[in-house]
């Protein structure tokens, strides 16, 4: 019921955007940003695992126990449609991942994706976080014991399976197997695994900002993608052209952040994002003045 409520809330938010904020801005000539950017880091060190009380991501070489299942197609990305948004206005169902990412079967995700349960999904603020997972041959003879890196793109609210629970794509679950034994491993059902939080490394890619459909001069929504390092984003702020201060965006759902403005927003926009370890990255003028909804705007910045 919790999962249904979450997805129902997501589709209601989506429908509201389309109906209420249907006006589009002008087409942009390109999605690049040649502007200057700033990168800042907290002084605190980061070692260990995520500490929800302190709000810091702490990485460690230690492994923690978890359980895992898989869903979707055996060699798929989880959702049968790869995370592409599809909504049925009559049934009010939604089949994209709860983070709002699309086409997760393409690079850089390459179907190596997973749902996380509540402590991992963190009400959407765990979206984009990367984990290494492995299963040991002592638990299943098909297990290779070799770590595989996955990214959180969805949620599974089942609280009975394990304290930490990954509902993985068929591809990522099978990747934990010895060569040629992927299909055999997928027959295991619920399986004991080990996991640890790791930094995301999107080689050759910078942070991408996808302006969500329905955005217009009075309403702006953006999906943050391919953030390296911590991977997950806990705050997004926007600065209009020639503005003297930043305006905080609200988390709409998953990796989507929005601003309901009482005045026409004036571009270009700079975006400031904060990861869950407190690192802050500024993409100056990344959204041009003639931006358009449903378009990607690649920045020239990335978390180190």
From TrEMBL:
Its main location: secreted. Keywords: Glycoprotein, Secreted, Signal. Coiled coil: none annotated. Residues 218-299 form the Expansin-like CBD domain. It comes from the Eukaryota. Residues 96-205 form the Expansin-like EG45 domain. Pfam families: DPBB_1 (PF03330), Expansin_C (PF01357). GO terms for cellular component: extracellular region. It is found in: Secreted. The keyword Signal applies. InterPro entries: Expan_Lol_pI, Expansin/allergen_DPBB_dom, Expansin_CBD, Expansin_CBD_sf, LolPI, RlpA-like_DPBB, RlpA-like_sf. Residues 1-25 form the signal peptide. Belongs to the expansin family. Expansin B subfamily. This is Uncharacterized protein. It comes from Eleusine coracana subsp. coracana.
């Amino acid at each position: 019921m919790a999962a249904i409520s979450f997805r129902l809330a997501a589709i209601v938010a989506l429908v509201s955007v389309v109906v209420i904020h249907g006006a589009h801005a002008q087409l942009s000539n390109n999605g690049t940003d040649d502007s200057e950017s700033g990168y800042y880091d907290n002084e605190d060190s980061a070692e260990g695992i995520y500490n929800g009380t302190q709000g810091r991501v702490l990485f460690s070489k230690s492994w923690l126990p978890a359980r895992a299942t898989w869903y979707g197609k055996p060699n798929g990305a989880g959702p049968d449609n790869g995370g592409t948004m599809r909504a049925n206005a009559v049934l009010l169902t939604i089949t994209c991942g709860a983070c709002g990412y699309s086409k997760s079967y393409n690079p850089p995700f390459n179907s190596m994706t997973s749902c996380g349960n509540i402590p991992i999904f963190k009400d959407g603020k765990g979206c984009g976080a990367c984990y290494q997972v492995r299963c040991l041959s002592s638990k299943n003879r098909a297990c290779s014991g070799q770590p595989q890196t996955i990214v959180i793109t969805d949620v599974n609210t089942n609280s009975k399976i394990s304290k930490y629970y990954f509902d993985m794509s068929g591809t990522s679950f099978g990747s934990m197997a010895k060569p040629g034994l992927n299909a055999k491993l997928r027959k295991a059902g619920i399986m004991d695994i080990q996991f640890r939080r790791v930094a995301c490394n999107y080689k050759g890619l910078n942070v991408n900002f996808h302006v969500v459909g329905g955005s217009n001069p009075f309403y702006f929504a953006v999906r943050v993608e391919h953030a390296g390092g911590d991977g997950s984003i806990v705050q997004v702020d926007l600065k209009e052209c020639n503005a003297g201060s930043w305006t905080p965006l609200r988390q709409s759902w998953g990796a989507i952040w929005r601003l309901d403005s009482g005045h026409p927003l004036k571009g270009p926009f700079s975006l400031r994002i904060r990861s869950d370890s407190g690192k802050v990255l500024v993409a100056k003028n990344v959204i041009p003045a003639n931006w358009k909804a449903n378009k990607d705007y690649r920045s020239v910045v990335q978390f180190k």
